[in-house]
Amino acid sequence: MNRARRCAVELLEPRCYLAGEGLASIAGDVASPGAAAEFLLSLVEQPDAARTGATRMVVLQVERSPLAACLLDPAAVGLRDRSSGEVFDAVFADAYFHAGESALALFELPAGQFVVEVAGERGSSGTFTLSARLPGDADGDGRVERVDLAHAMAADAQATVGLSRAAARMYGALGVNVAAIMSDVSRDAEFSGRNGALHVQAIAHNLAAPGATITLEPNGPTFMLAENSPAGAAVGVVVPQRLAGAASLSYSQNAGADAGAF
Known about the structure:
This protein is α+β, with helices and mostly antiparallel strands. It folds into two domains: about 5-135 and about 210-220, Sandwich (Jelly Rolls); about 145-205, no CATH class. Helix content is about 20%, strand content about 30%. It contains six helices and twelve strands. The chain has helices at about 5-10, 15, 145-160, 165-175, 195-210, 230-235, and strands spanning about 25-30, 35-45, 55-65, 80, 90-95, 100-110, 110-120, 125-135, 210-220, 235-240, 250-255, 260. Strands 1-8-3-6-5 form a five-stranded antiparallel beta sheet, with helices on one face. Strands 4-7-2-9 form a four-stranded antiparallel beta sheet, with no helix packed on it. Strands 10-11-12 form a three-stranded antiparallel beta sheet. A hairpin with a 5-residue loop joins strand 11 (about 250-255) and strand 12 (about 260). It is globular, with a radius of gyration of 21 Å. About 35% of the residues are buried.
């Protein structure tokens, strides 16, 4: 993302923070330089026979604590499947959001459980809040409605070519209040403070998918088992192992020829 766009986001700081909690929010701590905090994100699909989309767009944001003593500079948000370990690439990401006070990423996710990894740039550490939301979900019920897509399309048109009277009447008939400010953080997929093509695409994607319930909780504790203990002999020694090029920790199980990452 270029510098000009970052500056534009900084000027819109009050509105960007309005959507901080979203569908789920949890406090965390990168306790020491080089450490990583992990959280379990569970995405449960709501029953809806009329919607058949298999994935939905989810925004994850890491916002460092406003405390003066907090020096955390959030790194890019990492995400992997809890069971398979598959790493998900972000559709959009900015690790330098609001001059480094936040990091955010837009992911396309199916229903399931995922591990979210939060670390600090350049060995920074401190407390933060991790939040998740669905672009287009204006009321926090985990669903995107047609009026949300119409709102985003109207905002995009207003910001680019303007709304003609005919277009205003059409969007008004769809439930859009064209007299109000079009940009709305609930429909802002990248927290840029405006609704554009990316937002329209993300909202249209979520409109086709069933609603979802998202929860965030700490990822389960890990245990170090002594190699000469009965449990250690049975399952091996759990050893922290840093992934090449990643800021997160994985764990490998070393027990004879049955070693494998999980």
